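Quick look at the format.
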Amino acid sequence: MGDGLEVPGHGVAELESHDGRAHRVSEHQNFLHAHGSNLRCCSRCAKLPPPSLHSAPTALDHCPDPYVPGNVSYAAGDRVSVHSHVFECRPPPYEYYCGVDVLGSADAGRIEEDGGIVRAREYYAGAWEPVSPCLETGTPTGGPTVVPTGFPTVQPSLLPTSEEPTSAEPTPSPSDTPTDLLICPHPYSEEYAPRYRDGYLVEVSGTVFECKPYPYDYYCTLPDFRPRPGVVHATGPAWSDAWEKLGPCGHPDTDGPSGAPSAAGSGQPSGAPSGMPTCEFRRPW
């Protein structure tokens, strides 16, 4: 074993090897020596604790401004955030590429973080340096929250309130009209598909779909995996691996339910509102 090479951030110790000679060895070498194929470790190797090879970076208190594709004003040292991670523009000669959208708008801003591994993209791999995670403020949860409308369900009484019936009219049956309906998000767009990620909601044919979390969210960016209502597995890729079907949706300005028809056709408009509850549209985010 030769002289130890000091690695920045790791300690260096002088120890006695199996041939009786003193050598300098770094913490990094000590770790490789103790855990590698050569197990004939010196007597003082154990006194140097191995360094952590997988220490997670500490998240910053807040995220900087989001990355803007094609922003030619980016300069060395500028920091941006993408998907709750901070990236810093490197100095020249890489600085120029921080503001160049080489691949066009379809792939702009694809600085992503998946499980600690940053995907390599040739047009920014040398320009943006990953720094650390950061904490988003006011970030939506991504999952839809269905809020009850608060209208109680009126059940017909099984017991008469008096010995004689108060009315000869039959008791109306409960309505099948839903009381909760999601507001339709933006329609699915192949042009915007490369920016879809975990938690994104889209609308296809009056149905809401949510992009599944990692690792399936990558397929949400591929138009071949666009949601297809009524098709579990298409002849090509299986869209259901990337998108979760949440249910039907409506537009409050156009899809509101009409009033219930009166029991008797009097020909005159009813002066009082019907007893039917109206659908209340609530946003899921």
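Next, a different chain entirely:
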Amino acid sequence: MTNKASLYRGVYKNGKRWVAKCGFEYQSYCLGTFDKEYEAGLKYDEFAKKVYGDKAILNFCKHTSTLINIAGKVKGIRLKGGYIAWVDDESFPNLSRFNWSIDGCGYPQAAIKTTKGLRPVRMHRVILGLVGREMGDHKNGDRLDNTLCNLRKCNQSENTRNKRLNKNNTTGFKGVYYNSKRGKYQADINVDYKHKFLGAFDSAVEAARCYDRAALKYFDSFALTNADLNLY
């Protein structure tokens, strides 16, 4: 019997069951067979994260995997380059009409006809119905997770509140840097474009926890803490 291709990376159908496979160091590993297609996709992700770490290209983000296990009402849209964006059933029919790719900032985008002709439009803007300078935000920071519960409208100030760890950060914690003059780890936060000093600490973890408390106080539901990012 011929094998049927799957939407998910590392998954194919053999007979009535779905098979998960992953290649690593020139070897192909069979990860098991499953009744449901998405279960095989999740198994692939589990193995890929173990062997490839942060470089792994996954089928599911953490948030969406939970949704699928609970509700099974999420669909994937494959992007050019092998990535998959995840959307709710109700969003899928409209979005599937377009050819999606991933832009330089990691957002799914497609060429869509507007009043100014064909223009690249990001997926979350289509789902939220954003126009002009209206802005939207991914709650968990995953730009491939375009499920409705992960999207919200916001303003510019709110949109900057849940940024992930800066690539130039040397302490490994958001809102924390090492003050060499003091010999301490310093916690800072920016609130409505104003800088606030939170304190100096002997350890980076103490400073990170201080930042987290301040982020929850000032940013409420828009806070993205070090705890959320599993950094300590």
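Residues 11-55 form one domain.

See the schema section for token definitions.
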